[in-house]
Amino acid sequence: MNDKNYPELPKQLHDLRNFVYVVWEHLGLPEPTEAQYDICNYLNNLPRRAIIEAFRGIGKSYLSAAYVVHQLMLDPEMKIMVVSASKARADDFSTFTQRLIMELPMCQYLIPDSSKRWSKIAFDVAPSGASGSASVKSVGITGQLTGSRADIILADDIEVPSNSLTQGMRDKLGESIKEFEAVLKPNGKILYLGTPQCEMSVYNTLMDRGY
After folding, report:
1. Is residue 161 over pLDDT 50?
2. Rounded to whole angstroms, how far apart are CA atoms 112 and 114?
3. What was the pLDDT predicted at 4?
């Protein structure tokens, strides 16, 4: 134990690739693929503004859920906001993240007591101090993004056919994601994970904003 009263993460597990190997084994999945390890290696040294675009089925959501748990193990004071195209999808992400915490023995010290938040909408981890912002909060892209502060905003598949079919829809989506900067703490990070829906994808405009 360290002076903050939570277990030190073994040095080899500071590398997300090794943690994901353990998670995949727990889930009964084959060893992570070379592409999945490549994504993990990128996440290990994530820049402040980043996009990961990949084809469907590569496991972006599983990888990003493992990344969220890994970040909380490295620093339980971390505040992470997960944003998806719909509130239901964001809640599913949050629920899966909670399951990893509850089921993996090495993560169970993060489970809070009844005095802290523990719902699919927002939850705290046990070692975190009192805060108005949850350790993990899930939000739909059209929902209320402001009101909380985040060290990391993880935008998981915010672009889907139903919100990017027309230029007007894409413009509206582009305006919604501008709110991220108002939520982010100083020196915070924004990570997009997704699959472009067309050649005019909102992801393709992000490089003009420094991604």
Report:
1. yes
2. 7
3. 63
